[in-house]
Amino acid sequence: MRFSGWRVLKEGLTGNKGWAPHWRDPEPQPEYDVVIIGGGGHGLATAYNLAKEHGITNVAVLEKGYLGGGNVGRNTTIVRANYYLPGNSEFYSHSLKQWEGLEEELNYNVMMSQRGQIMVYHNDGQRDAMVRRGNAIINQGDDAELLSREALRKLVPILNYDNARFPIMGGLLQRRAGTARHDAVAWGFARGADQRGVDLIQNCEVTGIDVENGKVRGVQTSRGVIRAKKVALAAAGRSGQVAAMAGLRLPIESHVLQAFVSEGIKPVLDHVVSFAEGHLYVSQSDKGGLVFGSYLDFYSSYAARGNLPMVEHTMETCVSMVPALAKAKVLRSWGGIMDMTPDGSPIIDHSGIEGLYLNCGWCYGGFKAIPGSGNAYAHLIATDRPHGAATKFKLDRFRSGQGLMDEEGTGAQHNLH
Amino acid sequence: MRITCPICGDRDRREFYVKGAALARPEASATLEDWHEHVNLRDNRAGETKELWYHEMGCSAWIEVCRNTVSHEIVSTRLAATADLGAKR
Amino acid sequence: MRVAGKGLLQGAKPVTFSFNGRHMMGLEGDTLASALLANGVHLVGRSFKYHRPRGILTAGSEEPNALVTVGSGAQQDPNVRATQQEIFEGLEARSQNCWPSVEHDVQAVNDLAAPFFGAGFYYKTFMWPSAFWEKIYEPIIRKAAGLGALSGQPDPDISEKAYAFCDLLVIGSGPAGLMAALVAGRAGADVILAEEDASMGGRLLSEVEQIDGLPGVDWVAQVLAELGDMDNVRLMPRTAVTGAYDQGTYGALERVAHHHPRRAGLPRECFWRIVAKRAVLAAGAIERPIAFANNDRPGIMTASAVRSYLNRWGVAPGLRVTLFANNDQAHHTARDLVQAGMHVAMVVDSRHDAPDSDLFPVMKGAQVCNTGGRKRIDSITVRSVAGEERIQTDCLAMSGGWNPTLHLTCHLNGRPQWNRDIASFVPTPGTVPGLACAGACNGEFSTAGALREGVEVAGQALQELGLKVVDAALPQAGDDAYNMTAIWAVPGKGRAWLDFQNDVTVKDVKQAATENFRSVEHMKRYTTQGMATDQGKNSNVAALAVLADATGRGIPETGTTTFRPPFVPVSMAAMGAGAAGMGFKPQRFLTSHLASKELGAEQIEVGLWYRASYFPEGDESNWRQSCDREIGLVRDHVGVCDVSTLGKIDIQGPDAAKLLDFVYSNTFSTLKVGKVRYGLMLREDGFVMDDGTTARMGEHHYVMTTTTAAAGQVMAHLEFVRQALRPEWDVQITSVTEQWAQFAVAGPKSRELLNGILSEKIDNDSWPFMGCGTVDVMGVQGRLFRISFSGEMAYELAVPARYGDALFRELVSRAKTLDGGAYGMEALNVLRIEKGFLTHAELNGTVTAFDLGLQGMVSKKKDCIGKPMSARPGLMAEDRQRLVGLKPIGAVKQLTSGAHLFNPDDPVERIYDQGYVTSVGFSPALGHMIGLAFLKSGPDRIGDTVRLVDHLRGIDALCEVVDPVFFDPEGTRARG
Questions:
Q1: Are residues A211 and A85 in the same domain?
Q2: Cα separations (Å) of A204 from A26, A43, C19, C555?
């Protein structure tokens, strides 16, 4: 069924009786060409791209819970292409371009809203670092503008320009950045993949990966053995454990990142704004809720929930930087489990086992990567060659030290991001 | 979240800095592969795991904490000095 | 309407307040909701999506409909529950999300278009043409979205945060909570009793029943009096426990001042962090509505809310009340109304075996299937075996049973269990370590049962705490049967609401199931069910039941969504209390801060520190003029600069040298006493962590300096190495950053200046370059280091911090007599760039010793932190971006930090990127700008031309690649 305004109108006039499932619930087949472990944003986008771009439709996505139940459904929905290191730069640029046509591509309104993202700086050093970043963005072919304090004030008047502990000096604006409706991204890719013949299998937990003579043969699941020519991992948050089923040890630690949403309030903030001091990022959803977050809790965790110190830090930063939001009430908080790599950048690569592929280590940047990652990962799985936009997401960089992508400059070792 | 410092007792998480997995440092003669394992690769266990915490706002003790990464239960703590993390020399 | 002789507010003081501009009278102790009902106001708000008229559904914090905005101007507070807001003299409240008024809301037109606004409609439309989303569709949606409005101004109110510690935290003060607190209090435990409501007592304040022969409210008063007399018990009314966190930590929001006019200095709210060895959850239960067509009209309330308004506040929500229920307890509403002299038109009970009554008519086996009225209910349609019947009514009380308020038990990822007997989820024991549940929140709905469980859990907690129960006498109370038979949704046409605020109906949930959003999380996310401000407290279980029915599964198999903190919404102001303005982070001031300010210095933030940026003099009107002059002071005469922000770490012990050899890449054990050496510190990943100088003050005594930014990190690192990796070494480490004030005295006349204040004069032989030692400075013992960050002959003089202010003033005034003076960060920065010295602009976390040209500093003779990984091939590659100097050679003389470098003939595109500029400054000595940069294969390209491009600042300049040391490359001036 094709979605459109006409369809909504027609169904509305006829009692909304014509709507059909967005995807099927098939029984798993005994064998597939490709099995994708993980029915989140990346797994679903990969399945979609395998079918659409490479004509590989004998594909199953195995999800232990419900589709989109991982980080794609628990993030702050920010989409941007403002990375500055080779590797990340071209990849996120590619991904943003995919976002820009995603509604038409999927015939699903994922509400990609290019409302602009601003990184606020507070001192000369931060400004210079942002200039370096902004110039890299432009060199990549994407957009960036340096805003003076006055220009920023005109654009986002409610920030604390007058008595902040760390004065607001200006910002780096990317107009093409913005937000998207996170769940819809998963659902849109799921529907698109399903329509092209991919089997989306929910409540199917992978319990083992079968490897014979260095070659992958299939997976063991809670719903039986499934043979596969290729197995692709896309299980953010649990990557290390899934990889361990194949005897692999990954350069990944799992950490919890909390996020928050406020009660709905009338529009006060059009842009996505982040702050170099305190690391707050905040935007307002189309429903009126402020969506915001800050640092990791910093201890490793699989609990998908956090503790008060970082909750309070986040609120403190908000009260300090945007005191006009102080009376907004926090409605809900949640935690996502982040695959943290030593350098803070992801991995899309061969695993070293024939037919087993890795897509992991997205840290807290995975949401914006979804369309690009699906595209690049499918390319790798289908052709055994890296996609042009993802040639640097190599597993081996940690061993060799070649091409480490430490965007924050905090270190290429664990626990520093 | 509260951590039991072997010296100060039960204290708020705010007083601590957490460094991550408690791993013995390889010997100076170790291979680059050993070092890659030490610095980069992780078991990343969902369950009880040993990690290093620093009582930065307290007594400055480095502490080896055995903590469950699923339930956040603190199973045990001891001074890192007793955890034998330095390489044999 | 107020009912004579009813309620607990008899004799209370009258209070004037206003609602939507209309002045009204209420009584002290009223909530806004009870006062509005007393004034006959039922239409309070509008729903989110369809702008349906809405009234008051509940009498608690779970209220989904009656959300109002309180106050005006900067103090305007949106989304306040009328059911929680206590009235006070002068309170101003108004409806929100309606225009022009709650009576006549233009957007109510949405209700007519409801067929097109079904579940998830927006995922299927607004896609064409694609440019319209940002330009047209989304702005319209955004404008319509949201509930109340913030003022847009900074919050003028103050809030507070506090910590509390106790043996036992009791959450909720109904019969179970009161008994738990009483038993624990009598046993001598430190108890905190937190109650969300303004008054303690829970449902006992709203019910007509007896405990120990006393009316329930009198028993409550008696218990509170006893608790109030105990020093070990803290009663915290108006305090909602909002979250359970690890190791017995709870968050709680106290509404300190929402219930009276503003008083200067009084915080509005206080956010508590309560650490409790044990906790009792006695939070009661929330009555659930029933879904039937048009069940959302003003005047339709939960049955328990009707009892609360009648019995507690003495208000009758209607003159001709009807009741729709599925359990015996709900009949108390009719009983109490009749006994108060009110008219109950009909009790409609879905059970065929519902009890009869002498007081009111009961229709058994019947269901309310529709309602009439627009801004207030005026009738119900009842369906039974006899057919459909319309009954006039102005208030419908409904009860679909109760859901235990077990939210906190799920905050650590616990899942509740389905209890078939009461058709509710109940807590799973042990999901929050140390927390036990008692009373209604545990699925025990009778008063006698609640009292009993309160005693039991307190006894258990006391035993675990090692305390003895002193008195656990159990009061006598009613043990009324609940007798509930579940009914979730009445079949039929028309929209039957589940989530009132978000306008989610039974049809929406069914449609979600049809579209294969069959997982409860999918249904929630697709329909927005349970995502309103009540977080599904009123609706989640019913919605789940509807979904279970639609998908042919049982409720337990369908599952639940997760309850997450906070239990009730908490303002950012409360959780972020204290951070407004300067309160966000501590401010660290140098001992010279006051003197610098007196000299007119501009201050800049450096981490938490404030440092002097420059010292304007005479008619200098911009920073460059001052900076250039200050550079001249240092190069030609003598300058004084406070450098105390650098980390100073005192390292002592027989193994101090070993430690330094291990943490620095170069060797310090060979450093002679009385000498200083520059050191480079790596992280274990092989990249540079920090640099600095370390002085050997004695055989077993070193003083290390770190960069300002890395002071804390280096300290932690040294302690890690000492304690975790080398515990056998005998060495002690102490941060002394704040104990010493340290000043750079730099320039050709620096020695002359110092010799005026040192008791023993120094010369180049007694105090050579990189020499150090203790000195007597005007009678104070200090330390003198012959180190230079400017390339001039220079010293750093350190004295105990208490002498810092005096010494700085003395140094500056003496410098002035030598044609010198104070210099700030701007000048310091240019001076160091001229010398190619590094700061964190270059030590940006991603550079190696090799990148900095310092690979020679990684000693081959010893192990050190980071050495093995620094040898990785990728970290030694020739084409890495490596440090160079830049000078302009084209028409554009400007250089900027953050600009990227290209070969002059290459396109300016990422793939041709050769590097970037880290630091720039105008060198008065050279007469042009200079810069430091990281350039691919940099040191191999000295003399080449590169193109510097800064798109953001519009700079495009040709530069020559030069050595990073621009000034006095031989270093003769520093050694002179």
A1: yes
A2: 11, 14, 55, 21
A190 and A331, same domain (yes or no): no
For chain C positions 116-145, those within 8 Å of chain A (CB to CB) are 116, 118, 121-128, 130, 133-134, 138, 141-143, 145
For residue C547, with 0-12 CB atoms within 10 Å meaning exposed, 13-18 middle and 19 or more buried, which class applies? buried
pLDDT, tens only, C593-636: 999 999 999 999 999 999 999 999 999 999 999 999 999 999 99
The secondary element (H helix, E strand) that includes residue C95 is strand C91-95
Mean pLDDT within C428-446: 97
Question: How far are the Cα atoms of A33, A105, A387, C424 from residue A58, in angstroms, in the given order?
Answer: 5, 21, 21, 43
Instruction: Give per-residue pLDDT as tens, C254-309.
Output: 999 999 998 888 999 999 999 999 999 999 999 999 999 999 999 999 999 999 99
Q: How confident is the model at residue B29 (pLDDT cuts 50, 70, 90)?
A: confident
Query: How many C-beta atoms surround the C-beta of residue C353 within 10 A?
Result: 9
What pLDDT, on the 0 to 100 scale, is given for residue A298?
Answer: 94
List CB contacts (< 8 A) between A305 and chain C.
411-413, 564
- C14-121 CATH, one of 3.30.300.30, 3.10.20.440, 1.20.140.10, 3.60.40.10: 3.10.20.440
CB < 8 Å to A408, chain C: 845
pLDDT in tens, C770-812: 999 999 999 999 999 999 999 999 999 999 999 999 999 999 9
Q: Regarding the domain with residue range B2-82, which homologous superfamily does it belong to in the CATH classification? A: Folate-binding superfamily (3.30.2270.10)
Examine residue A292 and state whether it is found in any structural domain, yes or no. Answer: yes
User: What CA–CA distance (Å, rounded) separates C542 from C506?
Assistant: 9
The type of residue at C877 is A
| One domain, residues A241 and A125 | no
Given a cut of 60, is residue B89 above it in pLDDT?
no
Range of the domain at A140: 117-175+254-340
Would an 8 Å CB–CB cutoff place A10 in contact with chain C?
no
Measured on CA atoms in the order C586, C588, C594, C599, is the torsion positive or negative? negative
CA gyration radius, chain C: 37
Edge-to-edge strand order for the sheet containing B74-79? B17-21, B48-54, B62-68, B74-79
> What pLDDT shows up at residue C559?
86
pLDDT tens sequence across C456-475: 999 999 999 999 999 999 99
CATH tag, C588-645+739-832: 3.30.1360.120
